[in-house]
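Amino acid chain
________________
===
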Amino acid sequence: MADRGENEFPVFACSEALSGESGSTGLLLQQNMWEVVPLLGYGIVEQQGTQNPEEDETTCRTLTTEDLISEELLLPQSEETQQTALIPESVEATAGTALSNFRPAVQQVQIDRTQLADYETLVRNFYAIDANTMAGSDQLSVEKLLGMDMTLPQEGDGPQILIYHTHSQEAFADSVPGDVNTGIVGVGECLTKILTEQYGYRVLHHTGQYDVETRDNAYSRALPAVEQILAENPSIQVIIDLHRDEVAEETKLVTDIQGRPTARFMFFNGLSRTRKTGDIDYLANENQEANLAFSFQMQLKAAEYYPGLTRRIYLKGYRYNMHLRPRTLLVELGAQNNTVEEAINACDPLAHILDMVLKGE
């Protein structure tokens, strides 16, 4: 039982390290180097003891420095692509002023997929692995990640996408205390509106609160409610658990998109396997490969259409209720020191990226 297992998991520091298959070349290399050079560029977190690792801060104050895609992975654009990437004249006329309306970007750069076949290159550019977690080339293979079909059938009735918030009380720098509509729940409502009105998806936004008194056991409390929603709405094929991160105060997760200050965001995956315990049977996730493929395809689109908008995909050792559907995303949008405006502005590119992946563009 997921609830029982998650609640009774013994104390560890934030999360434990993953053990990969013994035949994984990338994992063996990482295991050998781990003892010599801790972290080795795969991610730095503050280690915090917790009675329930999965119920603590989801990312435990993640990276304070973010790597951009290496120049060697960026291919020159074709003449045709360069032409389509030019800013329309109507937008040029507004240069120097903030744009009130978002325009979906055209492709800005092209990532060399052939170089991503190298495990180390893939991880260095696309992943941040928790300090006590490891994932090998058996899990992170660009062939696998790109080979899974994430397109969403458009026929049928009923909601296609579920947006919810395990941590509904997460707020931003200028959120109104006690008003969840000015926090991450309000951002979720904005994302729902964009996906519905601009992209034509049928979206259900669940605003249930599971962390009002305490964050402890929030994932366990959310699980039966989400399962009930899925049982009542079998048409749902995409799940987004929308969070905001927490970072050091001196770190600001903001970039400029079309003249608008925009919160950077990060995709997050749980791997249900730790170094000390191996596979966590009571947190089994038969959809893990699809979850990883979904976040990677989102990350790749973001890197090519909105360079610098996303942080590296963060990997930890637990499950975080990501087993419920193959197309499940956990998104950390902005942080506690972002403004509500910055978070709202991030919904436009996030929706565009999701639409491209779901349509196979």
Notes: The first helix runs from residue 2 to 7.
